[in-house]
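User: Just a sanity check before I run the rest of the batch. Below are the structure tokens for the first item. I only need the designed sequence back.
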């Protein structure tokens, strides 16, 4: 079930009204939301509910057992059970075919016949998100940052809560479980913020991501050999804003739906294209994943405590894990390594500024600020063909397209003017939101509820007319 579909347009009002009707009876309200969440997920494939139930049951019992024992050896065994089950599901469904194909290549490289058959299993939607979410629960209990949850119902709802179930934000147990215990009711401010976030997210998805994808990004990446430098540049830029609008839009809709139900999810994007360093851009992009990686991989590896060489090593390993999390393929491995290198360079640059006494970035001139933003964005965007393509051969084809002025076939496809104008609009909107985003949100919050409701319905109808189709969100594949 897609947020930008007619089915969800029927589903969510029913859930919203049911949530309000049961607001005073906490147990029934949670059972209702849990049933709605399972129904929401089952619309993709009800069989994969078994995986959610397995992850929920294992981490529920492991978390309880961790809370009852102080013996470190037993605690390690219990944590290992949680990690093996969750990472085992990920390895089986997401990475097994990659491992098999790599083994075949290795066997063939030494002169033997590598003919191990791949499994070609369907990737369960959202598996990378909810496994990381449940693992955060057992990891926090293991590191004594959290006590075991007493209510199995609360824990099950924490795992399966439908707004963020399939594509995040990745919610920590310590953020959502206390809210479930308090049974909060949606306030006037929640309703205002929720409708604003839903509209803003739909605008990013329907107006920016879907149209840019259909007009520029998808045509180019499906046939890069037909394009010259202009079409290739437009396609690469378009995909950057497509994936931002797609994923940031999904996150914002999820946050908005949660607010309408009375719950608050963490922010997942903070206008990353306005970053001035590649270290900053990854602090503002997919925030919940990067903070998860920081807390459970980077810091346990030693973080920045072991000197500069070990710090750079830890940055590289963490970004390698982030790359592999996104997909099973050599492209994602290299993409993670490239991001690690750019972050290390940013850290080196910032240390140099501090040594020269230039700590206050706000004192820089506007020319320098915008120059740094442009450089940072273009370093980031040059790595995105690794993310978008399926093989290194495809990446090479994209590179060749950037080096030629016309198609070798002599019939270079037209680049739609509508797509180019929308791309320029996306750039302008990104720049304006950095300075006026909070003011626009504040202006919305000051409108009368009746006016907000009327505008909400008008914009929902408008987005429905503009939608090219109910296009799946890109991050569903991860």
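Assistant: Here's the designed sequence for the first item:
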């Amino acid at each position: 079930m897609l947020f930008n579909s007619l089915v969800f347009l029927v589903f969510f009002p029913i859930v919203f009204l049911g949530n309000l009707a049961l607001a005073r009876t906490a147990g029934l309200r949670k059972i209702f939301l849990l049933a709605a969440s399972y129904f929401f997920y089952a619309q993709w494939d009800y069989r994969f509910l078994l995986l959610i139930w397995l992850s929920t049951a294992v981490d529920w019992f492991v978390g309880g057992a961790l809370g009852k024992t102080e013996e470190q050896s037993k605690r390690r065994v219990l944590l290992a059970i949680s990690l093996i089950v969750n990472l085992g599901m990920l390895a089986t469904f997401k990475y097994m075919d990659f491992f098999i194909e790599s083994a075949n290549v290795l066997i063939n490289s030494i002169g033997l016949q590598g003919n191990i058959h791949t499994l070609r299993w369907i990737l369960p939607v959202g598996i990378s998100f909810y496994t990381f979410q449940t693992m955060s629960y057992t990891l926090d209990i293991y590191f004594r940052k959290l006590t075991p949850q007493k209510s199995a119902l609360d824990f099950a709802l924490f795992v399966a809560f439908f707004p963020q179930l399939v594509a995040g934000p990745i919610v920590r147990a310590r953020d959502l479980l206390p809210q479930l215990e308090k049974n909060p009711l949606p306030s006037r401010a929640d309703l205002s913020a929720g409708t604003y976030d839903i509209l803003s997210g739909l605008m990013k998805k329907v107006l920016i991501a879907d149209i840019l994808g259909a007009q520029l990004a998808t045509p180019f990446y499906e046939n890069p050999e037909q394009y010259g430098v202009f079409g290739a540049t437009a396609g690469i830029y378009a995909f950057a804003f497509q994936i931002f609008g797609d994923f940031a839009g999904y996150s914002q809709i999820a946050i908005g739906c949660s607010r309408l139900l009375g719950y608050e999810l963490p922010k997942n994007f903070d206008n990353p294209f306005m970053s001035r360093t590649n270290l900053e851009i990854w602090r503002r992009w997919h925030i919940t994943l990067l903070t998860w990686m920081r807390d459970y991989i980077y810091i346990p590896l030693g973080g920045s405590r072991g000197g500069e060489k070990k710090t750079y090593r830890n940055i590289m390993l963490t970004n390698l894990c982030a790359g592999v999390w996104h997909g099973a393929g050599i492209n994602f491995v290299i993409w993670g390594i490239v991001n690690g290198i750019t972050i290390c360079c940013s850290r080196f640059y910032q240390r140099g500024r501090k040594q020269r006494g230039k700590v206050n970035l706000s004192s820089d001139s506007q020319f320098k600020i915008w120059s740094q933003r442009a450089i940072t964005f273009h370093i980031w965007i040059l790595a995105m063909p690794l993310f978008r393509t399926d093989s290194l051969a495809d990446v090479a084809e994209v590179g060749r397209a950037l080096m030629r002025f016309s198609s070798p076939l002599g019939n270079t496809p037209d680049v739609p003017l509508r797509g180019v104008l929308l791309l320029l609009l996306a750039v302008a909107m990104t720049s304006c939101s950095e300075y006026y985003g909070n003011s626009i949100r504040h202006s919305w919050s000051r409108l009368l509820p009746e006016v907000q409701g009327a505008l909400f319905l008008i914009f929902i109808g408008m987005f429905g007319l503009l939608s090219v189709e109910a296009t799946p969100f890109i991050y569903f594949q991860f």
